[in-house]
Amino acid sequence: EPARQAARQQRELDVVDWLDRRGVPVVPPSPRVPRAPVRRDGFSMTFWELADVAPDHEAYRGVAMSYSAELHRALADYPAELPFLAPFNDGLPDMLAALGTADGVTTADVDRAHTEFETLRAVLSDRAAFESAFPGVPVQAVQGDGPSHNVIRTRSGIKFADFEDITCGPVEWDVALLDSQAVDEYDAAAKTLGMRVTDPEIRRVMDYARRLQFVGCMTLVPQLPVLATGLADTLDQWRSTPPLR
């Protein structure tokens, strides 16, 4: 949907511009054009500064979890309203509706995915539902897609990038599916910064939600064949986990 895509892209531009003006190391929107998505020939585009990439940059090579904690501290002050867990609530339903057409997905997979989605929706459908399930746990702007791995190594240092999934939610969404060492590193950094540490039960729920999101991405393989191998492994991992209760 063009309108939904444009709104998503505008949120990304606005948040990253706000972070840049506050001195957070990000790849900022280009100052050469208006800060808004441009639609041309059916494609919606955004424009960014060209990063001076360092020789040791590798796509999606992670950085220390302290970077994620520092980003969360900055994002906690973001003043504009953001949709609640947009990657789960906005993008996933359409993918699950088409899951039965994806290669390699069984009827049992589809049934389990829909059952888990409804269970998760009971606590993740909006901010009120989450706060009812986890009273007292704050939500805030979060990067939405693994900030520790969405970075660019530039000649002037690490810069955050890829905020297309910026959303409102618990910080646990951004550490979902990471191993215990990474979580411990995040929690240690959070303590140092005066922030709360992650909650194990919320992490469990976010892990299930993120796995389900990746299962839904099986429907994107015809458009992006490069995803096939990685998502097939993710599907097998999801099948090996106990169903959500």
From TrEMBL:
> What Pfam families has UniProt attached to this entry?
APH
Which residues does the UniProt record annotate as the domain Aminoglycoside phosphotransferase? 2-178
The protein's matches in InterPro entries, at most eight in alphabetical order, are given as: Aminoglycoside_PTrfase (IPR002575), Kinase-like_dom_sf (IPR011009)
What domain of life is recorded for the organism? Bacteria
Q: What is this protein called?
A: Aminoglycoside phosphotransferase domain-containing protein
This chain's source organism reads Mycolicibacterium vaccae ATCC 25954
